[in-house]
Specification:
The protein is of the alpha/beta class and 394 residues long. The protein folds into two domains: 121 residues, Aspartate Aminotransferase, domain 1 (Alpha-Beta Complex); 232 residues, Type I PLP-dependent aspartate aminotransferase-like (Major domain) (Aspartate Aminotransferase, domain 2). The strands form three sheets. A seven-stranded mixed β-sheet has the order 2-8-7-6-5-3-4, with helices on both faces. Strand 5, helix 7 and strand 6 form a beta-alpha-beta unit. Bound molecules: 4'-deoxy-4'-aminopyridoxal-5'-phosphate. 4'-deoxy-4'-aminopyridoxal-5'-phosphate binds next to helix 4.
Length: 394
Amino acid sequence: MFGNLKAQPADKILALMVEFKADPRTDKIDLGVGVYRNAEGITPVMRAVKSAEKRIWETQESKSYTGLAGDSAYTQALSALILGDAVAPGQIAAVATPGGTGAVRQAFELVRMANPDARVFVSNPTWPNHLSILKYLGMETIAYRYFDEESRAVDFAGMMADLAQVRAGDIVLLHGCCHNPTGANLNLTEWQAVVDHLNATGAIPMIDIAYQGFGDGLEADAAGTRLVASSCPEVLIAASCSKNFGVYRERTGLLMAVVHETAQQALTQETLAYLNRQNYSFPPDHGARVVATILNDEALRADWQAELEDTRLSMLSLRQKLADELQTLTGSDRFGFLAQHRGMFSRLGASPEQVQAMKTKHGIYMVGDSRMNIAGLNAATVPLLARAIVDSGV
Ligand code: PMP
């Protein structure tokens, strides 16, 4: 049996991590894997997370099973953080999932159950795991243009031209904020145009929101998602707490379905719980409990927000420093997009050869498509990266 297995394609980002580790150079810079790192290069446990964990340790009496949908204190608090009051609670079905990846996977499975003919439109480029999961599930995937390689901004005309092909019941996958891998995002006028198009065609939006609070702030980063949720009759939303609560390994995610008619809420909720049961039964609880504890406690929530805001501002400042440094070195504004992008990533727009040159010559590791993790930088390494970019002819 095992002899029949075929080797699966290696995850390029994880392979890059291994290569970085093996590089003996002491001045190497890791801009690869998508994990936040502070100026000391550490991915910290957030203060509020530590406090909540202590509180849970002191008060938790049992680790018996929760519900199949996870703890309702978590699903409700996180739904409210993402959606605000854009949707009435009776129109939301929600389950806890193992990370944002679990939510993405369950969302696709729900689509496949409800409408096996649905095609899934994904941005080109998108988070590679979207494509990999869709392929694994055997779902038809169509890429829509998203990134203008010249300006490094959203190619909105191209996007809308490609979305003209959608049919009723198709799924359009959108990144809620901080697009991975490009860093280029829709503005609210563009979100509205997408909503109008989806409603005119009957296509259904699915939003993946994995970086709320990393771009323009907690509220601003949810604005597109809220607009879609309040304007479209049916919406799927896959959310991750890995980044904004720094609970990566706890596997803390949420899948929400916004339903058109309140009568559909119960059936959708039951189906989501059923999918959890088939795939892993009860979702992980520890990270979810930490998140609910923070969101439902005024002081912890304020402290979490303050630390998240510091994180966001530190990435913005690194972006600005890098753009300024490149402006000085090149005497041109052509790298200004680095300060315009939002979130942890920017696609630099370097060729595979230039990415390779930055690695071999300068010990700078970025993903092959030239996605850089801005949080992998600090004040000292920004000038080194800027010089390497210019030296590599980007
Ligand atoms: N969606 C996107 C766009 C992401 O970048 C990520 C994290 N890399 C996820 C979902 C899922 O994150 P996790 O499963 O670690 O919560």
